[in-house]
Write a structure and sequence with these properties.
By secondary structure, the chain is α/β, with parallel strands linked by helices. Helices cover 42% and strands 10% of the residues. The chain folds into two domains: 4-163, no CATH class; 178-399, Alpha-Beta Horseshoe (pyruvate-formate lyase- activating enzyme), CATH 3.80.30. The chain binds iron/sulfur cluster (SF4). One of its GO terms (molecular function) is catalytic activity.
Length: 502
């Protein structure tokens, strides 16, 4: 539904490269693979899809490695958005196919080998593209250099390889070139062991402060003054057990980042339980990082479910050292603690387990209503649970619109209505920071119109139990037919007096 122009110019513009086609910054995992291969003596060039031909032609490339996050468009957020907007192909899947065509031609011309790995490589395990010689799953440190060496020398390699986890820190080299957005990893793995999570099998590691600062320095030398901490739980940093927060280690980390001249500290994930365990750590992080309403952080926090049955089967340790009976109060208390420190959580829920019924979803609705009653600054996203490749539920079927419990659509509407309310509130705050009254009124007018339309869309999904999404199945705004078709639909809706509010 998103025209190509917007993807190419706004949402996914090409990354910058130097004259030789080397990427100026790259996603952190790719930088890690680069460091691993360089340590093993390989000559590595990290480039972008747009500059691939130039690099291959000029460098005498023998092996192309492709890092993928969502090659089939079934990662949880893509799967949900594509499902509720008609079930069409995602841009991530389309871009991957386009890259595949390019790689096929290069392979034929230069007799190269191709290996695909990364966080989304599990999506290709059962049905690898014909041009990929190897699908590499898991971490790169232990086995990836050997795979590349064999491919280079023309030796046999199995079609799917599972990389073992590094057991010692000195097996994991720090990055040697700058990462996108100043990303640096501070922990790896998570001991809570949720069944739906692909992080689970990792051995938990907290990276030492000097290791982290070496990576930060690489980014800062390239002029990147912001830091984005990669972790599955910010408050697990430096902890030895799940029932403790290592306050001193976290304060030392934040203070050191600030001392090094970092402007903005951001982090990806946090769990609700340790927030309640150590509110003073959350407060200290916010004070050192100098977060405020316009410079806040919005990490992803697992809310998952309100159902006791689902909670105790799939995510029993989520609330540890508490348990399911404390879950809803734990969430409300932790959210209040985070909000006081300008941490505005994005709560994600996993819905659609095989044994999940409307009664379970009803319990999730009650949990969300309870949270909303306390009016926190938080967003709630009920996502279809995806059987990711390295998780314990990897053999479950992929979620489908018709298999979701029917009350899912009520939960979705309730959550989005609240999400829009919070976004509108923060959007208005941002609009009011503009001194120009004309800009202020334009921004608030746009927010109002866009949000009314989105709310109308989700209300229709609720009323039709998701079936209204199917009306958009054939919509393709990249074709003249698609544009004419959508105009026709608008006219049809106008005459049936159910026109969206804008
Ligand atoms: S708490 Fe989060 S990171 Fe840890 S296992 Fe559960 S879902 Fe994965």
């Amino acid at each position: 539904m998103v025209p190509r122009f917007f993807m190419d110019r706004i949402f996914a513009p090409p990354m910058s490269t130097d004259k030789e086609g080397k990427a100026i910054v790259a996603p952190y995992p790719l930088r890690k693979v680069e460091a691993v291969l360089a340590k093993s003596g390989f000559n590595v060039v990290v480039t972008t899809p747009e500059k691939l031909e130039k690099v291959v032609t000029s460098k005498g490339t023998k092996v192309i490695g492709i890092n993928v996050h969502d090659p089939r468009g079934i990662e949880p957020v893509s799967a949900k958005l594509s499902m509720i907007f008609g079930g069409g192909e995602t841009w991530t899947a389309k871009f991957f196919d386009e890259l595949g065509e390019k790689v096929s031609k290069l392979k034929e011309k230069f007799h190269l080998k191709v290996v695909v790995g990364g966080a989304g490589a599990w999506q290709l395990e059962k049905d690898p593209p014909r041009w990929a010689d190897v699908i590499f799953l898991g971490h790169a440190e232990v086995d990836f250099p050997e795979v590349v060496k064999k491919l280079e020398q023309g030796e046999e390699v199995p079609r799917v390889v599972r990389g073992r986890y590094p057991r010692k820190l000195d097996e994991i080299p720090p990055i040697i070139n700058p990462s996108r957005g100043g990303e640096v990893q501070i922990t790896r793995g998570c001991p809570r062991g949720c069944w739906f999570c692909s992080v689970t099998p990792d051995t938990f590691i907290s990276f030492p402060l000097d290791y982290i600062m070496r990576e930060v320095e690489v980014n800062m030398k390239a002029g990147i003054k912001d830091v984005s901490l990669i972790t599955d739980d910010m408050l697990l940093y430096g902890a030895k057990r799940l029932n403790e927060v290592n306050h001193d280690a976290i304060v030392r980390l934040y203070a050191e980042l600030k001392r090094a001249g970092v402007d903005y500290i951001n982090f990806a994930h946090i769990s609700a339980a340790p927030v309640k365990l150590s509110p003073k750590t959350v407060k200290a992080m916010a004070e050192i990082a100098e977060w405020n309403e316009e410079k806040a952080v919005s990490p992803v926090v697992g809310l998952e479910t309100g159902s006791e049955k689902i909670f105790n089967k799939y995510m029993k340790m989520k609330a540890f050292p508490w348990n399911y009976t404390n879950w809803k109060d734990l969430i409300v208390e932790s959210t209040a603690i985070m909000n006081e420190s300008y941490i505005f959580p994005c709560y994600t829920m996993t819905i659609g387990y095989p044994e999940e019924t409307d009664k379970d979803v009803e319990d999730s609705i009650k949990l969300v209503e309870y949270i909303i009653d306390h009016e926190p600054i938080a967003w709630i996203f009920p996502l279809p649970v995806i059987p990711m490749g390295l998780s314990k539920i990897r053999d479950n079927p992929l979620p489908a619109l018709e298999r979701l419990p029917s009350r899912y659509w009520d939960l979705l509407y309730l959550s989005w209505k609240y999400d829009l309310k919070i976004t509108r509130r923060l959007g208005n705050t941002i609009a009011y920071t503009s001194k120009n009254p004309f800009i202020r009124s334009i921004v608030t007018y746009m927010i109002d119109k866009v949000f009314k339309t989105i709310e109308w869309y989700f209300e229709r999904l609720k009323e039709t139990k998701g079936k209204s999404a199917l009306e958009y199945r054939e919509l393709n705004l990249n074709t003249t037919y698609g544009v004419v078709w959508s105009l026709f639909q608008l006219l049809r809706l106008a005459f049936s007096s159910s026109l969206p509010p804008s």
